[in-house]
Amino acid sequence: MKIDALHQLFLDCTSICTDTRKVKNNCLFFALSGEKFNGNTFANEALTKGAKYAIIDDAKFKTSDNTILVENSLKTLQELATYHREYLGLKIIALTGSNGKTTTKELINVVLSKKYNTTATVGNLNNHIGVPLTLLSMDKNTEIGIVEMGANHKKEIALLCNIAKPDYGYITNFGKAHLEGFGGIEGVIKGKSEMYDYLISNNKLIFYNAEDTIQEEKLIDYNSKVGFSNNNTTDYNYTLLDINPFVTFKTEDIVIKSNLIGAYNFTNLCAASTIGRHFEVTLNQIQTAVKDYTPTNNRSQIINQGSNSIILDAYNANPSSMDVALKNFSIQDTKNKIAILGDMFELGDSAPEEHQNIVNLLSFLDIDKVILVGENFYTTNTENSNLEKYKSFEDFKNNYKTIKDSALLIKGSRGMALERILELL
To answer: Is 102 assigned to a binding site?
Structure first.
């Protein structure tokens, strides 16, 4: 079936589904296969549960006219997403980076929503499946689409850009994330810069942080760009006023107060404000959007639980994000600061060194007590008397002593699931 004909079938359906547990009446089901399962085996179940059509790529599972055979279900999903994106003809803003992608995406969305009908990536649907699903969730009411792109190896951002075909792009930063897949920090820079490669080759507009020397150098000879900084040399300029406890900043004569912690979120706020201003959202509208935004999903969430004040930043962690989170926590004006840190994953051969670097950093920070959880942190050399180590979460749980009247930072990679600590507290 040609992609234009498939698109007509898609328009007659209510939604896209790839999981039979989430099938809705009249949805279009795509049988996607993984390393441990064959999605085609679920096609008939999807139809039985109410799917209008099922896309398969194995002929022996074709049971009716509602089962549509294609050469490759995943590739067809991606091609359909691109076709739909071009059919709608809307503006697409893409963003990637090592840290802050999701928070920045959400900030851009709340800012632009003050003036436009927007559709943005939900949660972390930012990979080769998530990006197509995001595009296919857009409709004729969508004026601007905001697409987050994640990657853990080279050529992935290039693929996602070719699927989404963005008109605008922004890279939050280049940090020590997914070092194993990228092959080191140089690989990270090259992989994330694939977004620049796409945007520059197609003469699209790039938003950039002029305080980031890597971004500045890579875009020095490119003219279609909009920059921001904390001085008067770029298109938009911002001044950080306070970070204790939340980020407050100023641009022109407008003071903007947020519910976000850490100087690192100042950059994310500046990016969202810059993109909003480029699209003619007023500063007063931006001020309201930022004031009303509260982070969720274990990303720098502020939680008051009993006598404890908690920064829950357990969605993910890498050396770069761990470094800035700890430095920010150490300067908070509060008593009895306790950091509970979980292992950082996907670092490959760099894991021992990067975990040791974090432990070494802790010696210079104003944090009263540190609890390290995970095999990587457990093998580090530690000399601090205020530091405890546990090989696993279960070890920590079994030895847990009540924590009261404290300020806590909880941070670790997703696989550590440190939000479980809330139950103990």
So the answer is: yes
